[in-house]
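=== Structure Prediction Worksheet ===
Name of assembly: unnamed complex
Input type: mixed (protein and possibly other molecules)
Chain count: two
Listed entries:
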Amino acid sequence: MNDAANTDRWIRWLNTVQLVLAGIIIMAPTVWMVLSSFKPSFEVTAYPPTLVFTPTLENYAELTKTTPFLSYALNSLIVTVGSTSLGLLFGIPAAFAVSWTRITWPAILTLAARMAPGTLFLLPWYVMFRQIGMIGSYTALILSHAVITLPIVIWVLLPSFDAIPRSVFEAAQVDGCSVTRILWRIAMPLVASGVAVSAILAFVFSWNYFLFALVLSNGDTKTLIAAAFNFIGEGSTQWGALMAAATLIALPPLVLAALVQRWLVSGLTLGAVKG
Amino acid sequence: MSDSAATLTQDRQKLEMAALSAPAVIFTVAMIAFPVVYTIWLGFQTFSSTGKQSFAGLANYSKLISDYEFWHGLWITIALFVLSLVLQLVFGVWLALVLFHAKRLPGIVRSLFISPFMMPPVVAGMMWLVILDPSLGAANYVLQSFGLPSSDWLASPSLVIPTVALIDSWQWTPYVALIVLGGLQSLPPSVYEAAQIDGASPFKTFQRITLPLLLPTIVTAAILRSVDLLRFFDIIYITTQGGPGNASNTLNIYGFRVGFEFFNIGYASALMLTLTAIVFGAVLAFNRLRGAVAW
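=== Predicted Assembly ===
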């Protein structure tokens, strides 16, 4: 009996060691990025690398002084909020209708964007947006990013709508409620948390998206992600500012994701896994 | 209520439902379906250096068959896909088992585990670019202090693809792990108890019971990762832009550069349609596999 308890303790200890090891591998690069962003410029490129240093904000000051970082950030915010709103506006009613009617093809159609390479859409968009003079406009960026947000909203919300008992709707129908009224007055309050999760996930993925803004933005509308090249200077001279930029760009999605971490994985699998 | 009145309500309801889906459907047709049809048409066009466009029949596709860069890109795409997928599935299942046996998982630990795949891939690229710098990077320093040889990572033509696979696996292994963990948690506990009573070793239990029951979940994770891996773009574009030389020029990177650096929209369309067919083919194949391992 004592032996079995010992083995048990051993196995648990071994498991903890593996967990800590995995945690270190997962966290170390990010920690290094954040540390480097607070290092004085001569220490960022020190070799051997240093762990103890006097933290400074000079890299962040340098970043805002030498690049239009804040206007890129504003562009990112405009495109992300715009495309998330559009995704919610189109996605919420569509998810409700798909859940109610069980006619799934509209939801599956939006998944095409999740599977095909972005360049497939970007080529015709580029030709079309150029013809109507929309390259570099916020409208073109918001529309293209809504292609990312729409399937996220629909597929995250579908299970939430599915979970509402049919009898709730049927009772409302007998009372003479129109479908639209049922959606806004009865269903929406019941799926409010699902809407919040879908909005945050849509925001994160729109914020993180690189390819479309690379081609469809111009100097005035460039998003933070598309401007990443501007921060990668030649050689290693700008590492401090580069890591400061990387830290600031990663901050909004990481904070938002931490808020919804419990519901995040089932949401990200777009209906493929029940969480 | 009379029959005709009931049909009337049903018809009205159908109409209202269609109206609710309409904005999403119209948007998707305008932004995806129509542009894809347009791409198919563009694939039959050539663009001269002055930007003049003319019908070229299958010229773009016959060019593709004799284009060394296309076959090279296909090989790079498949190598990166296989390497990354194997790494992420193997370590993802391992990590899921470790997390499963940890019993209780505080929210803060979960948040840390999701942080790699919630950060922009572009940021992951910037970060690893600094860490993997051949002369001043922290990675080589750590290796050297353990007495291991340093390496050129992203700057080495032979190592760039494994290195990119490592970066992507750092980002997405926790995601695979959390999906597999969900699968583990939904397995009935009775199967373990039965195995324990039969005196099966932990390894045997995993091999004979857990793994077969988990296969559908693992294949699902494989589908979700394949879709991203076959159209790999962000990390490569930010770190090497397909280099050194053409050593990391995946099909997606190659197609993008043909389209937006050399402005050969017709040929780029042919390349992208081919890549799309490969992605859809892989998804269909995995879907059949999922059907085969379902229980």
